């Protein structure tokens, strides 16, 4: 039964890898929600606190990897989101 | 201690709401990774199976809401991703 939980955790954590790769390659972040990744990083950080408090290695492991991935997307959203082309001058 | 887990689960699940709202409003999905949401929906579905097997209402509740939200983004990615402007005819 626990194997299903392990595979589930692997999938939900690994799911952020293709987003990190795509965003790194395209440098395009317009369609990505800043609020989603802010809230996600907060939630995953709280999961880490919870995992430490209850002493769950599985919760700590899965969420530390997820935090690195989610924080990467958040960082790229902040970094690449700024670089907008300057609007043409009005005359 | 459990309150931290509950708040963590609320944050990670609710984090998908702003992405659903943004994608619904903009209809723009180019920067969203299809593979991420495919893998995420698979993983969250497996969490539901796991929750049912171990009889955890918390796991079932959090993941059923997350599945609805993640599947919404996946559905919009598939639906809106197709509508590309036709390329100009070659002569």
TrEMBL record, chains A, B:
Principal cellular location given in the protein's record: membrane
Protein's membrane topology: Multi-pass membrane protein
Coiled coil: none
Cellular component GO terms, alphabetical: membrane
UniProt KW Transcription regulation keyword: no
Record-annotated membrane-spanning stretches: 36-53, 59-80
Keywords associated with the record: Membrane, Transmembrane, Transmembrane helix
Gene3D superfamilies from the UniProt entry: 1.20.1280.290
InterPro entries, A to Z: PQ-loop_rpt, SemiSWEET
Location of this chain's protein in the cell: Membrane
MF terms in GO: sugar transmembrane transporter activity
Protein name: MtN3 and saliva related transmembrane protein
